[in-house]
Structure formats: structure tokens, C-alpha cells
Write a structure and sequence with these properties.
The structure is a homodimer of 458-residue chains. The mean pLDDT of chain A is 94. The first copy, chain A, has a six-stranded mixed beta sheet with strand order 1-2-6-3-7-17, with helices on both faces. A four-stranded antiparallel beta sheet of chain A has the order 11-13-9-14, with helices on one face. In chain A, strands 4-5-18 form a three-stranded antiparallel beta sheet. In chain A, α1 packs across α4 and α2 packs antiparallel against α4. Chain A is of the alpha+beta class. The first copy, chain A, contains 15 helices and 18 strands. In chain A, β4 and β5 form a beta hairpin. Chain A has two domains: 286 residues, Zn peptidases (Aminopeptidase, 3-Layer(aba) Sandwich); 121 residues, Alpha-Beta Plaits. The longest helix of chain A is centred in the last third of the chain and has 19 residues.
Chain lengths: 458, 458
């Protein structure tokens, strides 16, 4: 097995140029799941993944239709059926690339600058999917697979995975595994391999405020009609108090408190104030009083405005009193908050804060609870040791601010825990312009995954 | 003179169909002054006006270039040079038509539905310009002009008339008149002829809030970076107190108080709460405590959000923490507020309220002070009597919420007062979708202007 391990790692190193070309090909497909005009590109991306699995010689490769974008599945069987089975999760869809004018190169024409590959999805998470595929290719090339692998690559992660639970439910036998690997969680920085043991949940809303039945002249009506943009601003402003706490009624009532041991562990993370200042370019940090940045991002719930629109927003001046105003508002949740309860809390907030001068509408767009997992499981130890081998130091354990609904689905529907890691960096601009994958880390990632698979058999 | 007056009025009645066709031709030109792509259409509209003046046989007709869109001028001389000279003001530019999807017919393909002509500019103010042209055509047809008329039709009213003061300054002799007629002020309703003796001023700003240097993933950074959209909402929310008063420091210090006599007169206006509810479709009214709607719109200053933009505003969900947020904010001013001082007050408000977590930029886009004029002047009496003749009842006197910078320019640069009236109605949707001119009122307007010109000679 030691020979195979070395042989697989050598193969990966020798083929890194071709691996990168294939990643660039994948990134060049604009598989934007939220955009109905990109249906053909979504199908193209699914076929690209399925073709890769077939070329690797995986079995049972298929593109499973869902109510939305399809799921790609395939598996690799070790000769020894008693070896553990790991379910590798990924998604082939990406976020929209807007605002396009802020990209230094075309979002869907991946370009290497410095040590990074730039392109939408390079980090989140086509880079991670291809790293898994190439690690699998390497272990297949090296001989007998040391572990059973199943691959589930969905196309709706960026829109909240609306059809994934249904797919999992319908295919429980197919997906039966000992644990899952979720490489969508990233690393803190290139020299800090990271395992994420908790993920925040998400509840995402669209709030619309309606005032007059039509846009009005702000001179003729300013002063008698409550301006919907002003009302929206007042509602949003009221959602935080002066200590940076969210004011939705009951928002913190189920939040699991941080104990001193966990606070001490999170304090070891290099993500201090300077880290966040450098990575964001913000003039100063902000957040809930009484918590460090790492605690606020990982272990405390937050509420964000993701978008806001009202009235005249072009160049120049238009003296309009707008008929409506809209905001996209989302909350990041921690154990044991429930997205449905947060929806009800926001409804209650609006009921008690909306003036009679306007009418509000609230849509609940996507949601999923937070998850926290065992830091000493079999799978986590295999990943921990693989990172130790490749980086020469143990990984950090952190709580991640983002949300991965699939982790809770795997737990609830398949009864398995996930090992959450990944080889994108925190400054990778996921969801923003100039998304990038740090390539030296990506190559270390492929090596880590190879060791991880062999560690499972040891 | 009585014969000419009757003959001119008869001519206008007999030619009303053709007059309307010409108005529709004028409205069909998308002369949007704020849009750099509409330069050719702006020139076309200026030529359209100049051609009309030439066809009427006016003298000195010319299109005067300015630093922006040109000014059209022409004059009509009475044989008796001692007759008064009235300077008729108008503008051939219009507001943008956005949001286009809310128009029931194309904004620039004028359409008659019911008693109204629908199209951008039909009311504000191409309808009023054409009413003046057709009244002049009618008095020319009836014989010797009873008055000297000068016409100044500019192309930058909707962008704050940035080049008009310069033009007036450079052409004081050309424009020398006894008083001005400004038909851009409108009527309250079809059965309420109206003379506007006060206009609010305007100070219009664009406020931009910058946070992180680029859009961030709201999961990875939500809770450590102050969201610019949230900061903008907080800044806007703080601009009013819970009594509906504007909180900019010193905002009310120069506001001329309303005396009891004027409050009694404004109380005669039919623009009560029901009027505003019906005309706006708002669920309930709003505004500064202690003042009636007519007082709040006409005699009290206000602050409005005209537009707001940040982050992701398309369909669906994107979990972005936006790098910036923008609002268009304008104030309507009353005597004796100064737009420059209001700019300084907003700067001071931002200095004292902006957190260190963001950086703000404030642009002062357009501005002009309020104006209030003599209700018993020669010109006002001529208009008052003309309305009495046509409607069979005296006009209402009101204070208008909108802003007409040219009125203050004429006062400051030419030393003349303006008679502010017009034949658009308060529900004409100026600046909004489905702008309309009520046609029976438009025809009464042409008749009123004919009587007005003859009244000046009596």
C-alpha cells in the first residue's frame, strides 16, 4: 500500500499541468444555477463531470434528473468490500459573475495570474471537485483502490439545493456510505490546512416595501407620502442594536453558548483582526460586542443585507418618490437555531415595526440549519493525518461562517457525518469578482486527498 | 380688441385637432436630457420648437448653443412698443421613462385613452409649451398682437438647468421683459384653476457608502465587516426623527414660519388627506407632525430618498456582502433655506453619524433655492381674470412642492417675477410611468393663455 501511495502521489505531480488544463476547461463553462438562461450550460457542466467519471472507469455513472438541475453520480469499488466507503460531495454550479465590470479577466475565461487561477467557480467549487477527481484518477492509476468511493456532484448548491434532499431520499441505498467528504469548506490561508467542524446555517429572504401605487414626483408628494425606500432603511436599521446584535424577537434564544474550551481553541486561529482587515480592505471591523472576529464569523449568528434596490439608480438625478423598495436579507445561523423559526421571527419583527403607511411582502428564498460535528471521528483523523503529511503540521480546527445545507442532509437522511475541508483560501473572492484558486494549495490539496484515501485503509 | 379676443378663441377651438396632433409629434421625440445617448433627440426637439416659432412668424428665432443642451428663443412684437412684454418660459427636455415595463403604452408613442394623452412629457411640460405656442398662433391669426412676447425654451430643466443662468446672464438685453410666465406649475384638479405663488427649492445628492474593497461572501465575513447597505440604511433612517422632521443639523433654522393668515388660505385648497390618498394610492399618509398635507407639501421642507442600490438585486439569492451602497437623496426647500447650506448640513450630519467602519462620498448633483412671490402683481391679476373667464370661478392660490430653478434665476438675473401656473393636473404622473395630459384642461389652458395675453393689454 505504501508503494501505491507513493506511486499515486508521483502520478499527480507528473500530471499537474494536464490536471490544471482540465480544471480551466471546467471553469470556462458558465454553469450559473440561478439563471434560467443558463440551462444549456448547466447540462454541459453535468455532462463534463459525468464524462470525467466514465474516463476514470468509475461504475454506475449517470446524470440523474431532478425537479431542477441534475445530479451526477458515480462510484469506485475496492476489491475488499469491507473497506470503508466515503461519499464525496461536490457541486458543478457557480454563483452569478455580476458585477462583471469589476473582473480583471473574463469570469468564464479562466486566466492564470501569479500563483492563482482566476475565474468564477475556480475556488467555489470546481477547483475542489477537480481536485477530488484527480486524486481518484491518481489512486486508480496506482493500482487497487484503497477505499470505496461514491461521488455525488449536484447542480443547485448556489441556489440552496432545493432538490437534493429529494434525490438523497430517493437513492438512500445507492448513496449508503460510512461518512462523507465535503471539500467545499476551504482553508484559512496557504500555510494553514484547516478542518471545519461547524458550519453556519442560512435563512435568506426578499423583503419588499410598497407605498404609493406608482412612482410619484418627489416635489408634489414629498412630505405627505411615506417614502418606501426610507421605510425600508428604517426597517433594516432597526434589525441591529447598538451592540451589533440582531433584534429579531427570539433570535438568540436557541443559540448554543460558546464554552471556555472552545473559545480557547478558536483563539488559536490566525484569523485575528489584522487578518480580516487585510482580507476585506474594510477601514475597520465591526460586529457583535463581546466576541472575537473568529467567534463572530463561526459561532455567532448574523444578519446581512445582500442587496437593496429602489427608485432611480442610473447616472444623474431624477426627482422621483419611488413606489417600492426591495432588500435581499439573509441570516447566518448557528446551532440550534431553526431557519423556519427565524422566518417567523422576521415576520414578527415586520408585524411590529412596519408603519401603516406601507405594505410589506416577505419571501423566504432558501434556508438550512447550522451543523456541528465530531472532531475525533475516523474520517476526520484520516484527513488530519493527510494534512500533517503534506504540510508538515497539524490542521487548524475551525467553525466556518458559510452554510453547507448538504452536510445537514447527509446527517439527517443518510445518518453520516461529513469531513469538511477544502483547498480554496479565505481570500479567494468566492461569490465576488476575481474569484481565484491558489494553485500551489490546489496541488497540495490533490496530494492531501490521495493520502486521505490511503489513510482510510490503514 | 374684443373682436380679436373672440376671433383668437374661435380659431383655437376650430384648430384643436391639429394642435393635438402637433403636441403628439413633439411628445414622440425622446428628448431625455440626462441621457448622453439622447443628444440627437435633444437637438431634434430644439429644432422642432424653433421651426414652430418660425412658422408662427416670430422674429429673432434661434437655437443658442450652451455648455449643454441648447436654448431656443424667439419673439413676437406688438406694434405699440409701450405694451408690456412677457417672457414665456418652457423646457423641451423630459425625464427618463424608466421603469419602462410599468407604462401601459410606449412612453414615446403618445396615445389618447379616455380624456387624456399619455406619453413622457405630455404634461411636464411639452403640453404646456405647445399650449403657449398655440395660444400665440391664435392671437397672431386674430390680428395685431396685444402684447410683446418673448419665448425661452430650454433643454436642461430636468437636470437642474446647469447652463441656464449663464445663458440669461449673457443675454440680458435680449430677454428684457416686464415679467415672466412659467406654465410648468400645473393645477390641482380639472375644476380647480390654480396659480402657484411659491415653489420649493431643491438640493439633490448622491451618497455612496464604501466598506470592504470588494464584494465578500456573506457567510465567511458576515459578522466582522460592517455591511455598507446596512450602514446606508442606518444613515438614511437617522435623517428623520419620530415626528417626521429632518434631523440634518440646522435644517429648520432659516425656514420662514407659516402665519395664521396663510395657513387659513392654504386650508381652502381641496388637497385634503383624501385627495392625497386617492392620488397616490398609499395605504396611509405620513409627514411632519403639526402640519396639514397642503402645508407639508408647499410650505415645509422635506427630505426624500429618490433611489437606492447595493449588492445583488436580480431574481434569486446571492449570498454577497456588498462592497458599496448608494442612495440618491434630495431635499425640497422653502424660503429662506439655502441649497449650499443644506449641502453643508448633510456633510455635517455624515461627519457626525458615519461609523469608522466605512467611507462615504457625497456628490451635490443639482440645487436651487425656493421662491415666493407677490400675489397681487399685474401679471398675476391678468392670469387670475383669464381663469375666471374660462372656468367661471377664481383660481386657487397655492404653494407648490416642486422646484423651478428658473423662477429664481429670472428674479435674480432679470429682476422680474414669474406668474406660475400650467394646465397639467396633480395626478398627471409627471416623472413616473404613464404620464398624462388631461385634454379638456389643455384646451381650456390654450383659451386661458389667449385671454391672459389680451388681459395684459386692457
Amino acid at each position: 500500500m505504501a508503494d501505491s501511495r507513493t506511486s499515486a502521489a508521483d502520478f499527480a505531480r507528473q500530471n499537474s499541468g494536464r490536471f490544471l488544463e482540465e480544471l480551466m476547461e471546467f471553469v470556462s463553462i458558465p454553469s450559473i444555477s440561478t439563471d434560467p438562461a443558463r440551462k444549456a450550460e448547466m447540462e454541459l457542466a453535468a455532462r463534463w463531470v459525468a464524462d470525467q467519471l466514465k474516463e476514470l472507469g468509475m461504475t454506475g455513472v449517470d446524470i440523474y434528473p431532478t425537479g431542477g438541475h441534475p445530479v451526477v453520480f458515480g462510484e469506485l469499488s475496492a476489491n475488499d468490500k469491507d473497506l470503508p466507503t466515503v461519499l464525496v460531495y461536490g457541486h458543478y454550479d457557480v454563483q452569478p459573475a455580476e458585477p462583471l465590470d469589476l473582473w480583471e479577466s473574463d469570469a468564464f475565461r479562466p486566466e492564470i495570474r501569479g500563483y492563482s487561477l482566476y475565474g468564477r467557480g475556480a475556488a467555489d467549487m470546481k477547483g475542489q471537485v477537480v481536485a477530488c477527481l484527480k486524486a481518484i484518477e491518481s489512486i486508480i492509476h496506482a493500482g487497487e483502490p484503497p477505499v470505496n468511493v461514491k461521488l455525488l456532484i449536484e447542480g443547485e448548491e448556489e441556489i440552496g439545493s432545493p432538490n437534493l434532499a429529494g434525490f438523497i431520499n430517493d437513492n438512500k441505498a445507492l448513496l449508503k456510505s460510512d461518512f462523507a467528504l465535503n471539500p467545499d469548506a476551504g482553508m484559512i490561508a496557504a500555510d494553514f490546512p484547516t478542518i471545519t467542524y461547524a458550519l453556519r446555517g442560512l435563512a435568506y429572504f426578499e423583503l419588499r416595501v410598497y407605498g404609493p401605487s406608482h412612482d410619484l414626483h418627489s416635489g408634489s408628494y414629498g412630505g405627505v407620502v411615506h417614502n418606501p425606500a426610507q421605510v425600508l432603511a428604517e426597517l433594516i436599521a432597526g434589525m441591529h442594536d447598538d451592540k451589533g446584535r440582531v433584534t429579531l424577537p427570539g433570535f438568540y434564544s436557541k443559540v448554543r453558548p460558546l464554552d471556555e474550551e472552545e473559545r480557547a481553541e478558536l483563539a488559536r486561529l490566525p484569523t485575528d483582526e489584522n487578518f480580516y482587515l487585510e482580507n476585506t480592505g474594510a477601514p475597520a471591523l465591526w460586529g457583535e460586542e463581546g466576541y472575537t472576529p473568529a467567534e463572530r464569523v463561526g459561532a455567532r449568528p448574523t444578519l446581512e443585507v445582500n442587496g437593496m434596490l429602489s427608485g432611480f439608480t442610473e447616472e444623474g438625478s431624477k426627482t422621483v418618490l419611488p413606489a417600492w423598495a426591495m432588500a435581499k436579507i439573509s441570516t447566518r445561523l448557528v446551532p440550534d437555531q431553526d431557519p423556519g423559526e427565524v422566518h417567523a421571527q422576521l415576520q414578527e419583527y415586520l408585524r411590529s415595526h412596519t408603519p401603516k403607511t406601507v405594505r410589506v411582502e416577505l419571501d423566504n428564498l432558501v434556508g438550512g440549519p447550522a451543523v456541528i460535528s465530531d472532531r475525533t471521528s475516523f474520517g476526520v483523523r484520516a484527513m488530519q493525518n493527510a494534512m500533517q503529511t503534506v504540510w508538515g503540521k497539524p490542521p487548524l480546527f475551525r467553525r466556518e461562517g458559510g452554510s453547507v445545507p448538504v452536510v445537514i442532509m447527509f446527517k439527517n437522511l443518510l445518518g453520516i457525518e461529513s469531513v469538511n475541508c477544502g483547498f480554496s483560501l479565505l481570500d479567494c473572492n468566492a461569490h465576488g469578482p476575481n474569484e481565484k484558486q491558489h494553485l500551489p494549495t490546489w496541488e497540495k490539496g490533490i496530494a492531501t486527498l490521495i493520502h486521505f484515501f490511503y489513510n482510510l485503509a490503514d
